[in-house]
Write a structure and sequence with these properties.
Helix 2 runs parallel beside helix 3. Strands 3-2-4-1-5-6-7 form a seven-stranded mixed beta sheet, sandwiched between helices. It starts with a strand and ends with a strand. With 192 residues, it is an alpha/beta fold. Helix 3 links the parallel strand 2 and strand 3.
Length: 192
């Protein structure tokens, strides 16, 4: 199976660099709405069967125009939500949040205060992805930290930890649950 993971389009919280992870979240700004429309051309040629989005508003607003243009179903799923920032929600200093997340490969029981820990995050994200196994090619519209963290855990690629990931950048993997291979990251070929 092939999955195109897409980071949601831009919101005002992205512009302000705020740690915005809570449900339902802000809507896309004008730039973000255009980025969502531009996704159709960005993934042209991919044989997409389904679009799964986080249930957070910005992810839904990013994925729905793509699904409509392709005539494929949309699955809205809380399992692919962003990693909860808990007590650090709407903070402009991301360092504490990132410090916890990057330790999860060694100690997945570490928790963000009143937020996720590595076990809870990976369990919910993996379960959502497994629901796509009946499809040949799927899009998953999710969030930056969630996408990077899942990539590190599932593809054993430390590349994802600090690699840039802009709004509507596409990361492609192929494989099956438990055996994923990173194919490309924001247009950069990673398959070699």
């Amino acid at each position: 199976m092939r999955i195109l993971f897409i980071r949601h389009a831009r919101t005002q919280s992205n512009v302000l660099h705020l740690l915005d992870t809570a449900y339902p979240g802000p809507p896309l700004d004008e730039v973000g709405l255009q980025q969502a429309e531009d996704l159709v051309a960005k993934v042209a040629g991919e044989p997409i069967d389904v679009v799964m989005t986080s249930d957070i508003l910005r992810a839904r607003q990013t994925g729905e125009p793509l699904a409509k243009a392709l005539g494929v179903p949309v699955i809205t799923h809380p399992g692919v939500r962003e990693i909860s920032a808990g007590d650090w929600e709407m903070d402009a200093d991301w360092s504490k949040y990132v410090d916890v997340i990057v330790q999860w490969p060694v100690d997945p029981t570490l928790s963000i205060p009143n937020g996720d820990n590595g076990v809870s995050f990976m369990t919910r994200f993996d379960a959502a992805i497994e629901e796509l196994c009946d499809y040949e090619c799927a899009v998953v519209v999710t969030h930056g930290a969630a996408l990077r963290t899942w990539m590190v855990a599932q593809t054993n690629s430390q590349f994802a930890v600090h690699q840039g990931l802009g709004n509507t950048d596409v990361v492609i993997v192929e494989g099956v649950p438990g055996s994923w291979r990173l194919i490309s990251w924001a247009g950069e070929d990673m398959s070699g």
